[in-house]
Design brief:
The chain has about 300 residues and is an alpha/beta fold. Helix content is about 40%, strand content about 15%. A 6-stranded parallel β-sheet has the order 1-11-8-7-5-6, with helices on both faces. A 3-stranded parallel β-sheet has the order 3-2-4, with helices on both faces. A two-stranded antiparallel ribbon has the order 9-10. The longest helix has 23 residues. The structure holds guanine.
Length: about 300
């Protein structure tokens, strides 16, 4: 393997350590403990694992964790009424509703019902607009964590070419905005892009966020490029003994060509939760007018 491995697990551990120190300081100086409410509707096994990890790491960082597990039959009105309660609860500084939601609940209505100051996912249109126009706002966790890894690997990003593969509201679009704000020349590639391999091959930085197992091949990558794999895909093992988790990048070929590359697991995934904790800490600081410690 030619590429240098980007260790998101170690990076996120160090970030969570800084957050825990900042949280202790906020408690000491302002007598406030950041609180994160996570709402899970239904029994999707992958979502249950994420939610459990989030709750554990929230408590480890010295914050309060409020878990709300609702049955898949919960109505949209019931969910909206819970969010209204959480919006009004002074102990809750951050609210995260785990996506995807069951099909009978409109995601847009739910996201828009969360108070923008408690929207630690950064999905509310008010935050989306502020991030897009560079006026602050809550930055979505996965793009924020990915950007931190890219900057750690490459330093100043000015003038670099970046290709974001995938145009979701959660990752692709905000990722492109952040790279643009860091003076990259940014292309968003997607399922209708013509000759996506040669588009990708022009990039100094590739962020893969398509949700298709091992789609980005070694020959899509410019030698020495920085490759960030956001994908978390479960695929059946060939011998029929369960499943394995792979990214959107064909890691073994890509790591022969790239300069830096994130593994799956252990790359972007742990950064997402650490950034969620960071956003919750920042929301708690804002709620009491405290100056946040620079954790990034
Ligand atoms: N489901 C997968 N990723 C995310 C995320 O970042 N936030 C929420 N709320 N749900 C998700």
């Amino acid at each position: 393997m030619a590429a240098k491995l980007i260790d998101g697990k170690a990076f996120s551990q160090s970030l969570r350590g800084k957050i825990a120190t900042a949280v202790a300081c906020l408690k000491h100086e302002h007598n406030v403990t950041p609180g994160l409410a996570v709402v899970l509707v239904g029994e999707d096994p992958a979502s249950q694992i994420y939610v459990k990890n989030k709750a554990r790491q929230t408590v480890e960082a010295g914050m309060l964790s409020f878990e709300h597990k609702l049955p898949a039959t919960t109505s949209e009105a019931e969910l909206l009424s819970l969010i209204e309660e959480l919006n009004a609860d002074a102990a809750v500084h951050g609210i995260l509703v785990q996506l995807p939601l069951p099909a009978h609940i409109a995601e847009k209505a739910v996201i828009e019902s969360i108070a923008p100051c408690k929207d630690v996912d950064g999905f509310h249109p008010e935050n989306v607009g502020q991030v897009a126009s560079g006026e602050g706002g809550v930055v979505p966790c996965t793009p924020l964590g990915s950007l931190m890894l890219i900057k750690d690997a490459l330093g100043d990003l000015s003038g670099k070419t970046a290709v974001v593969i995938g145009r979701s509201n959660i990752v692709g679009k905000p990722m492109a905005q952040l790279l643009l704000a860091n003076n990259c020349t940014v292309t968003i590639a997607h399922s209708r892009t013509r000759d996506i391999a040669s588009v990708a091959r022009a990039a100094d930085i590739i962020v893969a966020a398509v949700g298709r197992p091992e789609m980005i091949k070694g020959d899509w990558i410019k030698p020495g490029a920085c490759v960030i794999d956001v994908g978390i895909n479960r695929v059946d093992k060939l011998d029929g003994t369960g499943h394995r988790v792979v990214g959107d990048v064909a890691f073994s070929e890509a790591s022969e060509v790239a300069g830096n590359i994130t593994p799956v697991p252990g790359g972007v995934g742990p950064m997402t939760i650490a950034c969620l904790l960071a956003n919750t800490y920042l929301a708690a600081c804002r709620s009491v007018g405290a100056t946040a410690v620079d954790i990034f």
